[in-house]
Amino acid sequence: MAVKIKTQAGTIEISNDVIATVVGGAATDIYGIVGMASKNQIKDNLNDILGKENYSRGVVVRQEENGVAVDVYIMVSYGTKISEVSRNVQEKVKYNLETMLGVVANSVNVFIQGVRVQPE
After folding, report:
1. Which SS3 state, helix, strand or coil, does residue 40 take?
2. Angle at which helices 16-28 and 82-96 cross, to 10°
3. Per the record, a Pfam family (predicted)?
4. Is the pTM of this model over 0.85?
5. Percentage, residues of the chain above pLDDT 90
6. DSSP letters of 44-99?
7. The Cα angle at residue 90 between residues 89 and 91, in degrees rounded to 5
8. Spatial separation of the C-alpha atoms in residues 95 and 90, rounded to whole Å
9. Residues 6+ apart with CB under 8 A from 23
């Protein structure tokens, strides 16, 4: 399924994989994020961090009337304040979607799938 934006010149379709790549890139740039996690950890049998080519397995995009709703599944670093990291992810994802793709994010839901200790 793709997000459709109607303009005067026609319709623009943006695939969910493109949106997932933008969302995943924005989320992994935040301090305290170890990486993206799979939304179906039991089904995928994955407790690992997703690479750039698999961001779509950690992001769910739903089209709404005047924008999109995004669910982001992440792994955070041990010792970081989860509420602050989540708020930063919400703000950056919303900003990147609006500036890069012109898509309005009505809601950005952050799901913490695990906490990892990062070796120094």
Report:
1. coil
2. 140
3. Asp23
4. no
5. 32
6. HT--SPB-GGGGGGGEEEEEETTEEEEEEEEEEETTS-HHHHHHHHHHHHHHHIII
7. 95
8. 9
9. 55, 59, 61, 70, 72, 93, 96, 97
